[in-house]
Amino acid sequence: MIRPMPGSTASPRNDTRSRLEVRISAEDKNLIEQATRAGRETITGFVMRAALNAAEEVMRRERITVVPPDFFEAIIDSLDAPPQRNEALTRAAKESREIPKRK
């Protein structure tokens, strides 16, 4: 799914003012042309669909953090556990409420 840039009023699929050019080998171009003919699709449509699918997959991976199951369970357990008092932190908080300024 394509999303418009913040502040943009144009629909991204209908905004044809932007261009993206790439240089590819003749062999790669031939393969893309064969695929577009086989899929009865334009080269632009084919390349746009492939590039956008790849971009969305990259962004999806960027938003997800994968951790081992035991690590995930430890995080959940620590969030579910009642808070534990930290005496050193409590003392430090009572000692000074001022934030030291750098000189």
Automatic annotation (TrEMBL):
Superkingdom in the source lineage: Bacteria
InterPro entries (UniProt xref): Ribbon_hlx_hlx (IPR010985), TacA_1-like (IPR014795)
Coiled coil: none
Gene3D superfamilies xrefs: Single helix bin (1.20.5.780)
Pfam families for this protein: TacA1 (PF08681)
Keywords linked to the UniProt accession: Toxin-antitoxin system
Location of the region described as Disordered in the Swiss-Prot/TrEMBL record: 1-22
Protein family: Belongs to the TacA antitoxin family.
PANTHER family associated with the record: COPG FAMILY HELIX-TURN-HELIX PROTEIN-RELATED-RELATED (PTHR35401)
Descriptive protein name: DUF1778 domain-containing protein
Species, as recorded: Streptosporangium amethystogenes subsp. fukuiense
